[in-house]
């Protein structure tokens, strides 16, 4: 049998979207391989999670009922043990922050080749994965000549499976010695609270690396003022300490859904796009005509923000 | 205490580039220290300034050209550097497992108490070497660290892991450990002129596979890049043409139409 083992992702009692997406990636790969799709659910309210993940195309759900939240030693150990029990051809894990924290250990422990952050998977006698490189400027095909193999899949690339089914659920007994784990989760903290909630804004003027210097922010602040917009940014601006964390749009920042999102000097890295693609209208100003932001923009200006923004301010002054 | 920082020279593609075979043409690439590694270097140097008797060693896998990048780390306060390279390494398509074997051999040589590594490399974006290395050498670890405090006796690292959606996980990690460092952890310093001058005199030790007790099998990889192409553009954007003021006028009209700007 050439089965696929996929691992679900959850946090603070909620399954994450990638859990439903990895089911589609897994069942497509299992179909190519001619095997079954096994889904692992580790820690938390496994009964409720297994119920929600009883989805079409899943052949079996294995639950490891130990722990409440993610712990990488538990995840790596349980996934590796389940792999040894099932002997699948492929193990799929999410390329989420938690996936980054255990998937490489699973691959290392089982001596599996690892393809990280796949955006496409095909199997025809061997795995061919699609990945991005150079900040999403190019795509690559990556061939893997050994089996079994491990893959982490990027969230948002496969459509979530929603169709439910009656999937058998089996408890997988895994002995986890928490006291032997050198990493101990102490809790969680919400960051980025502040006086402004960019998630509520109807019109966001958002700035990225293209602003170059902190003092150039004044120009964008002036634009926000004359247009009545709320100011937000991509990650590098917050990393530089030029704007507080509560202004950051993206995977690790806020998810926003304004009527209009004006992206100025933002290239459109996948982590940023994850936070703003729900905007009704996206407008981008960037000097690079190949910037990925234009792929999702409704309106685009290929040009220098330092020429365009002063003219735009003029329009509303 | 010894801190090992893994650093990588990464390639950045010019706005206009051409693909030659399975990579972007060399003439369209510029090389720099990986941004994530810059934060890792800064974290290590800050620890060396905070505590007595901390040595910071950087390790890189890269050709002679990458010494420029390593000098940058040395100029920022790294004490000495190791560069791993030889003909077998140069001829290999290094996957995560191969990099893990090379760095594990360096760890065996250096016996660090803490390994810091960038979360990912800006060019290939695998984001896996640090955790794979930790598992291989039996260290504890934490991935995507954006806040780091240490106990006075350096026995434990109190870290924040940056999760998705503005949530941070607070985790204690026993040392020795590997931490993969997210951008924003600190403010990487610029290399001072004095630092740059001093860096010229610092040691960059070169190791080949044999020096690390390895052979060509260590860099054999079952993963191979078979094609590279520009993604088909999905853009159906309406572009505003003309001079900057004409473009701005068209954009202003859209904003008025959408009703988000009132005058």
Query: What's the shape of chain A?
Result: elongated
β-strand percent of chain A reads 25-35%
The structural class of chain A is alpha/beta
Let me know the largest β-sheet of chain A: 7 strands, parallel
> What Rg of chain B is obtained from the alpha carbons, in whole angstroms?
22 Å
Mean pLDDT of chain A: 95
Q: What series of H and E elements makes up the topology of chain B?
A: EEEEEHEHEHHEHEEEEHEEEH
The beta-strand count of chain A equals: 18
Oligomer: heterodimer
Q: Biggest sheet of chain B: strands, sense, closure?
A: 9 strands, mixed
Spatial order of strands in the largest sheet of chain B: 11-10-9-12-8-1-6-7-13
Q: What series of H and E elements makes up the topology of chain A? A: EEEHEHEHEHEEEEEEEEHEHEHEHEH
Q: What portion of the residues of chain B fall into strands of 2 or more residues? A: 25-35%
Task: Give your account of this protein's structure.
The complex is a heterodimer of chains A (317) and B (263). Helices cover 29% and strands 27% of the residues of chain A. Chain A is an alpha/beta fold. Chain A has a seven-stranded parallel beta sheet with strand order 7-11-6-1-4-5-12, sandwiched between helices. Chain A has a five-stranded parallel beta sheet with strand order 15-14-16-17-18. Chain A has a three-stranded antiparallel beta sheet with strand order 8-9-10. In chain A, strand 2 and strand 3 (14-15) form a beta hairpin. The radius of gyration of chain A is 22 Å and the shape is elongated. The model of chain A has no long low-confidence stretch (mean pLDDT 95). By secondary structure, chain B is of the alpha/beta class. Chain B contains seven helices and 15 strands. Chain B has helices at 35-50, 67-75, 87-90, 96-110, 129-137, 193-200, 244-257, and strands spanning 2-6, 9-13, 19-20, 23-24, 29-33, 55-61, 80-84, 114-118, 140-150, 156-162, 167-174, 177-181, 204-207, 223-229, 238-239. Chain B has a nine-stranded mixed beta sheet, with helices on both faces. A two-stranded antiparallel sheet of chain B has the order 2-5. A two-stranded antiparallel sheet of chain B has the order 3-4. In chain B, a hairpin with a 5-residue loop joins strand 9 (140-150) and strand 10. In chain B, helix 2 (67-75) packs across helix 6 (193-200) and helix 4 packs across helix 5. The longest helix of chain B has 16 residues, at 35-50. Chain B is globular and about 65 Å long. Chain B starts with a strand and ends in a 6-residue tail after the last helix. The interface between A and B is large, with 103 and 87 residues.
């Amino acid at each position: 049998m050439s089965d696929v083992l996929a691992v679900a992702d959850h946090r603070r009692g909620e399954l994450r979207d990638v859990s439903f997406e990895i089911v589609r990636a897994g069942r497509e790969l299992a179909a190519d391989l001619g095997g079954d799709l096994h889904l692992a659910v580790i820690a938390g309210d496994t009964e409720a999670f297994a119920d929600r993940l009883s989805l079409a195309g899943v052949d079996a759900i294995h639950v490891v009922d130990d722990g409440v939240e993610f712990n990488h030693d538990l995840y790596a150990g349980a996934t590796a043990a389940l792999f040894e029990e099932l002997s699948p051809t492929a193990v799929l894990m999410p390329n989420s922050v938690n996936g980054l924290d255990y998937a490489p250990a699973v691959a290392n422990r089982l001596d599996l080749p690892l393809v990280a952050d796949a955006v496409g998977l095909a199997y025809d006698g061997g795995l061919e994965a699609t990945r991005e490189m150079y900040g999403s400027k190019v795509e690559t095909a990556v061939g893997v000549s050994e089996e079994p193999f491990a893959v982490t899949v990027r969230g948002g690339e496969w459509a979530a499976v929603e169709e439910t089914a009656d999937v058998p659920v089996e408890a997988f007994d895994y002995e986890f010695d928490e006291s032997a784990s050198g990493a101990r989760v102490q809790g969680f903290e919400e960051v980025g609270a502040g006086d402004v909630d960019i998630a509520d804004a109807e019109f966001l003027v958002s700035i990225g690396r293209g602003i170059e210097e902190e003092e150039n922010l004044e120009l964008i602040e002036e634009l926000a003022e004359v247009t009545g917009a709320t100011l937000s940014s991509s990650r590098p601006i917050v990393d530089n300490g030029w704007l507080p964390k509560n202004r950051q749009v993206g995977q690790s920042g806020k998810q926003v859904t304004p009527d209009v999102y004006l992206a100025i000097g933002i290239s459109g890295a996948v982590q940023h796009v994850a936070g703003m693609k729900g905007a009704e209208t996206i407008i981008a100003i960037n000097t690079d005509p190949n910037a990925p932001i234009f792929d999702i923009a409704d309106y685009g200006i290929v040009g220098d923000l330092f020429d365009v923004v002063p003219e735009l301010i003029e329009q509303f002054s | 205490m010894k801190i090992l920082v893994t650093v990588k020279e990464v390639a950045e593609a010019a706005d206009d580039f051409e693909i030659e075979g399975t990579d972007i043409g060399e003439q369209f690439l510029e090389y720099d220290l990986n941004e994530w590694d810059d934060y890792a270097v800064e974290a290590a140097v800050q620890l060396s300034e905070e505590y007595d008797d901390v040595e910071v060693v950087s390790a890189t896998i890269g050709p002679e050209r990458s010494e420029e990048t390593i000098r940058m780390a040395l100029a920022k306060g790294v004490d000495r550097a190791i560069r791993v390279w030889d003909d077998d390494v140069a001829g290999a398509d290094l996957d995560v497992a191969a990099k893990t074997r090379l760095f594990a051999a360096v760890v065996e040589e250096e016996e660090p108490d803490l390994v810091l590594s960038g979360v990912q490399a800006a060019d290939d974006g695998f984001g896996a070497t640090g955790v794979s290395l930790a598992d291989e050498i039996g260290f504890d670890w934490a991935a995507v660290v954006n806040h780091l405090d240490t106990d006075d006796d350096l026995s434990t690292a109190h870290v924040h892991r940056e999760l998705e959606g503005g949530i941070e996980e607070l985790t204690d990690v026993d040392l020795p450990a590997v931490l993969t460092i997210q951008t924003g952890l600190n403010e990487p310093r610029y290399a001072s002129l004095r630092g740059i001058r001093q860096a010229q005199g610092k040691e960059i030790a070169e190791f080949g596979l044999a020096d690390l007790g390895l052979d060509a099998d260590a860099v054999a990889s079952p993963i191979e890049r078979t094609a590279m192409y520009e993604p088909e553009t999905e853009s159906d954007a309406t572009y505003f043409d003309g001079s900057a003021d004409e473009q701005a006028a068209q954009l202003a009209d859209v904003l008025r139409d959408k009703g988000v700007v009132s005058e």
